[in-house]
Specification:
Layout: H1 3-49, H2 51-62, H3 66-76, H4 78-81, E1 88-94, E2 100-103, H5 115-121, E3 136-144, E4 147-155, H6 158-208, H7 223-279, H8 285-317, E5 325-328, H9 329-346, E6 350-355, E7 361-364, H10 366-382, E8 389-397, E9 400-407, H11 414-417, H12 429-434, H13 441-451, E10 455-461, E11 465-473
The chain binds adenosine-5'-triphosphate and magnesium ion (MG).
Adenosine-5'-triphosphate binds next to helix 10 and helix 13.
Length: about 475
């Protein structure tokens, strides 16, 4: 259990209960006091307003033994006046000195001269109430032929005090029970809050240690539930990012390995042929020429690989500038067709160009798009057995021009189709190398076409043939500066 959270909760609960009780207690006490005070003065007013009582008192004040007679009259009304001989008593005082003549209470000699008594001695009714004093009283002057008297009712508030202290006790008990309940509740609450936080902490520790599996479950709609779900999402995202990183790191390694391999092969054969030429003095001229041709050929191959790699790394760095201009795509199609026709004829392919619609001028980098077209056609020529048929078909659809190169060549196995755009990927390494391929052509093509906001897609059936289609927006790349 988290101590600090628990302590905080307990403190808050205790403060809450204590302040609540204090407010309620103070309010109740005050209410009771004013209730008693109001009740007392109201009762007195009502009772003394009775004509019969007043008549009785006045006639008693006229007769002999006036104080006792007046006391009798009051006694008859003790019910209405609430006289209980305990907290509330009546007295008959001398109207001149305020001295007690008779009464129901015990304070006969010691009765204090209150403000109200002084008022009555002065000849007026003393009805003033005072919240803060320890008693409530009324003093009424009665003048008869037997003398001046004061009818005096005094309540020493012992009832109110008794009730208040009882209430105090009840509030104290409630406070105690409230405190116990609040401590228990805060314990439960702290546990309910701390447990998911502890789970989260553990999960975070596991994630920090590289274990992304902790799938915390929480259906709670509260903040902790949201936090838990967010945490799950984060762990998942982190795992994915790490996976991606690992994958791209693996791809980078593979790429470097491929590059080294591709470069080493021609170097090895160049060196082999060069050494042979160096060592053999009397080599026939024809063989010498043949060896030199291989060396030149391999150097060309290396040059091509290095150029391709350079271009790809420039694409990756984003440092390549495309020369966007409006040019005749139809002319480019014809140029590429004418450039590749000789190569196609060398392999006895039936090579055709067909334009389905008029081809508009488009915006793009002419040289690089022609490079893509050349790779599309040269692949078809390379990967089709001699005497095959290869066709370039092009057209326009809305704001897009498309061109397909279709062959009836060796095709590509299903599982390889998605990989042919990967760098260095060749379905049949030996065959491709034989024909001078490095597996970079389509990945470069993809970069170029993508940068033109176009698409390049390939469909193939092994042994039947391949169709590769490029589309380009007529207006070129939108948002181009
Ligand atoms: N028309 C096609 N028919 C059959 N296989 C194809 C065809 N076009 C591409 N491929 C397969 O896809 C691979 C990748 O093609 P890509 O053009 O990228 O490389 P390449 O032609 O081998 O080398 P490069 O183009 O760099 O000289 C090829 O090696 C080949 O296996
Ligand atoms: Mg190619």
């Amino acid at each position: 259990m988290n101590k600090s959270l628990y302590t905080k909760l307990v403190l808050i609960m205790v403060a809450l209960i204590v302040s609540l009780m204090a407010v309620v207690g103070a309010f109740l006490m005050n209410e009771i006091r004013s209730f008693y005070l109001d009740d007392f003065y109201q009762k007195m007013q009502t009772v003394f307003d009775y004509q019969t009582l007043a008549d009785g008192l006045y006639s008693a004040a006229n007769g002999a033994d006036a104080p006792e007679e007046m006391a009798k009259v009051l006694k008859a009304y003790s019910g209405q006046l609430g006289i209980d001989s305990g907290s509330r008593n009546y007295y008959i005082l001398s109207g001149d000195t305020g001295a007690v003549m008779t009464g129901s209470g015990s304070e006969t000699g010691t009765l204090a001269k209150t403000t109200n008594i002084m008022t009555a001695i002065g000849g007026n009714a003393g009805y003033v109430s005072d919240h803060s004093s320890s008693y409530m009283d009324v003093a009424l002057p009665i003048e008869g032929s037997a003398g001046r008297f004061i009818v005096y009712i005094k309540d020493n508030k012992s009832n109110v005090r008794g009730l208040s202290s009882k209430l105090f006790g009840i509030i104290g008990q409630a406070l105690l029970i409230g405190l116990i309940i609040s401590v228990l509740l805060s314990l439960l609450l702290a546990k309910a809050m701390v447990t998911p936080i502890q789970n989260l902490t553990k999960a975070a520790e596991r994630v920090a240690a590289g274990d992304f599996s902790p799938n915390l479950t929480s259906n709670a709609q509260d903040e902790i539930g949201v936090l838990t779900r967010t945490f799950n999402g984060m762990a998942l995202q982190l795992e994915k990012t790490l996976d991606d990183l690992k994958k791209s790191e693996a791809m980078r390694r593979e790429f470097v390995a491929n590059v080294s391999h591709e470069l080493r092969t021609p170097i090895t054969s160049i060196r082999g042929y060069a050494e042979t030429l160096q060592d053999s003095r009397n080599m026939p001229k024809a063989t010498e020429q043949e060896f030199l041709a291989v060396i030149v050929n391999e150097s060309d191959r290396m040059t091509k690989i290095v150029q391709d790699l350079l271009m790809l790394s420039r694409f990756d760095a984003g440092s390549i500038e495309f020369a966007y201009e409006r040019f005749s795509f139809e002319k480019s199609l014809h140029d590429v067709y004418n450039a590749m026709l000789l190569e196609a004829q060398k392999h006895s392919h039936n090579f055709t160009l067909e334009l389905k619609t008029p081809i508009p001028d488009i915006v793009g980098d002419t040289a690089r798009l022609e490079q893509v077209l050349i790779n599309m056609v040269s692949n078809a020529i390379k990967y089709t057995r001699d005497g095959g048929s290869i066709s370039m078909i092009a057209g326009r659809k809305d704001e897009v021009v498309w061109v397909s190169v279709r062959d009836n060549g060796i095709g590509i196995p299903k599982e390889d189709v998605s990989k042919v755009f990967d760098r260095f990927y060749r379905v049949d390494k030996a065959r491709s190398r034989e024909s001078g391929g490095t597996g970079l052509g389509l990945s470069i093509a993809k970069e170029i076409v993508t940068r033109h906001n176009g698409t390049i897609e390939l469909t193939s059936r092994q042994g039947k043939g391949t169709v590769i289609t490029m589309t380009l927006p007529v207006e070129g790349r939108k948002n181009e500066e």
